[in-house]
Amino acid sequence: MSEEKKTFTFTIDGQTAEVEPGITILEASRLIGGKSVPPAMCYYKPLETSGGRCRTCLVEVSKGSEKDPRPMPKLVASCRTGVMDGMEVKNLSSEKAQEGRKAVTEFLLINHPLDCPICDQAGECHLQDLGYEHGYEQTRTEFERRTFEPEDIGPYIKLNMNRCILCARCVLAANQLTEKREHGILFRGEHAEISTGLNKALDNDFIGNVIDVCPVGALTDKTARFASRVWFTKPMNATCECTKCSGKAVVWMKGEEIIRVTARKDQYDEVQDWICNTCRFDRKDTKLWNFEGPRHIDRHSVISLNHYQKPQDEQRLLNNPDAKEISEKDEIGL
Ligand code: SF4
Ligand code: FES
Questions:
Q1: Residue 22 is part of which domain span?
Q2: Which residues of the chain have pLDDT under 50?
Q3: Where are the transmembrane segments (predicted)?
């Protein structure tokens, strides 16, 4: 007789679903989907050991589990906390979690310049989205910001350290995707910064993916810098004959011209298929690509608007048909 598979009952903001044991609160929330999914600035599912650095994914655990229903005394990082059977979590419905996220946003912006009008990441930047939602109108900091000059860290990549939030995604991507990592986080605390080793340049195959995983505009593609605001471009799914990667990419068109090439990403802005440097930086000729059709940008962002179709799911509450729906009155600040 086959043993019945054990699942955990998990609830976030009043929506309940059965999930696999061993996954995190963030992953369980993503299975339910919708607006209750906590934002994540450092967690990145395709990168092992990512998460636990930025605290944007904080949630309140109002019931620990069926066995031990006591609430957790502090907000927890949902990307690093495992689900328990019967666990109840509050995100949008928790004033404490929203206040916590506001504080984290303020912290992340302490040194970050408000240079969205000239930043290539504007329109697809997670910190910009957080700032709109939770940021203060004015800074309360009296100290001078840390400042760095933009730096070439290889033939293709520009580092603007002023914008870096030290999420370490680029370090993990270089570790896990390339043959040899040539950069990392140097120094500690207030002095921590992203830098290459002495006389080293980021130029190995697949290193361009660090640009895609960077949640802010700290790492930008030198072949596409300042070419266009992203909302004036049209993303197209395209494929090419490539011996190094799958050759499946998104090419961003301005008129007849290819402005930039990126990997394909899902609704959480996570790369589905890593692409090689040749596809990303050297294939800017339309003759080199087979166009499959327009790319729908699923993530809620300025770029998902006005391109071919409106996102039907902007107000979507549930992805999972088995989940129970949150009532409007439970939501805070919507
Ligand atoms: S450069 Fe970007 S990806 Fe790398 S640590 Fe800084 S913010 Fe994260
Ligand atoms: S996404 Fe969880 S701590 Fe950064």
A1: 8-107
A2: 307-318, 325-334
A3: none
